[in-house]
Specification:
alpha+beta, two-stranded antiparallel sheet, 17 helices, 60% helix
Amino acid sequence: MAAGEERKATFTYRLLGFLADLVMLALFLLFGVALLNIIIQTVVLVVGIYREVTPHSPFAPTPEEGRWRRDSLDLLIALVQAAVAGLLHFGFLKLRKRYLHVAAGTGFESFISKRYLLAREGGKLVGLISFVSVLGVAVGTMALIVVISVMDGFDRELVRKFMGVFSHVQIVRDQAFAQSTNIPEDHAEIIIERLLEVPGVVGAAPILEHETMMQARRGAGELKAPAMLRGVDPAREAEVTEFMDYIVTGEPVPGHREIVVGQRLAERLNVWPGDSVYAIGAVLAGANRPLAGTTPLRVVGIFNSGLYDVDDKFVYTTIGTVQEMLMLEGQVNSVHLKLEDPHLVQGYAEEILAMLPAGFGVRTWQMLNPQFFEALWIEKVAMFIILLLIVVVAALNIIGTLIMTVIQKTRDIGVLKSMGAESSSILWIFLYHGTYIGVIGTSLGTAWGLRLCHFVEHDIEKIFELPGGVYGIDRLPVVVDPFTIAFLVFCALSICILASIIPAWQAARLNPVEALRYD
């Protein structure tokens, strides 16, 4: 009975200690975020004052008058919050250190490790290096989270724009089964009716594309530019792509022999809504004799998708206009679709391909421009590796911290071993030491990273504004994915734990006799 009560009391003390450690960590993170808020509000205040003093600053063309007063109040609130969080944290830390022997929270090894981590008698240099190690891990983790989240946001925004232009799935003729790559319109209508019955397909429309050369006016010396002329069914196209949502001036829906031009192409040709351009293509005049033709087209609108190549090359009009230019009456190139979930496109593609007649193939949005998406992936991986090096550098500080702690505590190690502590216990003491530094650093870095992601997503315009005409967006997109954050934290914490193994192993191998002779 006494043994059972003792185990119950031990469990209670350890549970209280564990909860106390969690509270102490939470207060530490609260204090750390409060300090970060002070830095953020200080930068915002300085930029706000700079905007008012220099109205023509490149930061913002139209500064908000009197904003520095609100920014000063926000800075004052951040200072008060930091002061309160600091008092709570350091007050609870003293309380925790005083009663650490009552509520150990874990076993013998963790108890000794926390004593070494919190005690600073005769070890101010070790404490400073420990602080630098925690700060390095925190900064590295924060940089990983913020940069990867912003890159995920940019990737998702670019993919959304890409799929808004090129659709999710295209149905095309397979040249291995057919001499012509065109599809009769009546066949396309049957395919569209079947595809709209597939669960998950929300829109389908025919298109007819043709590469051409656009010329602003007649004449040998006039401006010319290559272009991709896309013929669409305006009523159905709105259900598949977002071309008509990108209009910046003019009309979104073209009529017969009317076109909507990408903004960069319009600038290259120096044309505006109401101007006429000439499409230089080819029509079939005989069995083997193509005859070059020039078709006058009227510009009725200009769009800006935010994708450079699209805005620089694409032009859309009606299917009938392109059919008339190419003498392809009643024919289209392909049928393209919009899906509920484009990320499940492979499953949809297999299902759609199975229901299509022989001679047709399927191209997904990932196949349309694989180099583009591969470049995005490689860029993200490269940035992840580069930023992870910051954590590696911080892990080197952890190695230095543990080595100096081992040197400082050599006599303590000898005493512990002479009292019966096994080498494995000494190993775990210093392994816990490095792990605690890693846990504190990664936790603080995660809190800082999430706070910065929130600031970037909602308030970054207080510091700078993106030129929407260049990037196609006027703010930094941020995607905070819990699985990505968990993976980044796991990587950072794993590096810290691996860095702790070598010093802990060296401490476990110390000879107790030699350790006791250490002076």
